[in-house]
Amino acid sequence: MNMPVFKVQRQALLSQLVKFEAHPDFCRETTTLLAGDGAVRKTVLGTILAMTFAASAIAVAASADAGNTGNGTLTLADPAYTSAVKPGDYTVVCTTGGADATSKFRVEDPLGNQVGTATGGAAFAKQIKFTIAGGGTDFVEGDKFVVSVSFDLGDASNKVVEWDPAAADGTERIWGLALNEVTAPDGEDAEGQLVLRRGPSIVFSGQVQWPDGITDAQKDDAVREFEAMGILVRV
Fold first, then answer.
1. Total number of domains constituting the chain
2. Which of 87, 48, 86 is nearest to 195 (CA)?
3. Please, which of 3, 29, 196, 232 could form a disulfide with 177 given CB 3.0 to 4.6 Å?
4. Torsion angle of alpha carbons 202, 225, 47, 84, nearest 10°?
């Protein structure tokens, strides 16, 4: 006699994802899930999240180093950033002195990664946007500007969405991991998205909802991003 067999798939538990965290009050934040766009937007436990920042939440300021020889100026564009901008101090250092069209400047992001090379007298528009104009005294090697970018994390216009490693609009930057299931209807934001935002914490890779089609290189980059946040991803 054959006995019927029933299989029940139980919803994943938070403890299956988060193996350690220093303290929930420190490691977690509650935010808003962006409205669905043409369909509902849904996150589940372990969804990797990115943050969309409104223009009102981003402030940019530039300053010249007091020891500069050249007396030219760096003028920010309006807006002064692209969607790929990062919070922190960008450095713009002269590598080739001279007047406009001759002077060259290495632009580095807040982590020290080279973003590109700016030329005196020409617009620069990679992560930050500005134009350097020479003055009466030419720039020399080592002259420097600092462009400071700050994000207002408490701005009510900030919303989380699913992380997209192939994007170029800022959603390629990881914000955290979803710790609950939230559904935002089409055209309507949903509050109550709980996020593992920082460590010290350890999560199980098998419960992280890696996007379909993610490459090994993108996953490795994501693991490093999490580690920079104090979140260790372990198999």
1. 2
2. 48
3. 196
4. 160
Single-letter code of the amino acid located at 76: L
According to the model, what pLDDT value does residue 173 have? Answer: 87
Query: According to the model, what pLDDT value does residue 83 have?
Result: 81
Q: Is the pTM of this model over 0.85?
A: no
Residue ranges making up the domain that contains 130: 55-151
pLDDT value of position 4: 61
Q: Is residue 6 part of a domain?
A: no
Q: For residue 105, tell me if it sits in a domain.
A: yes
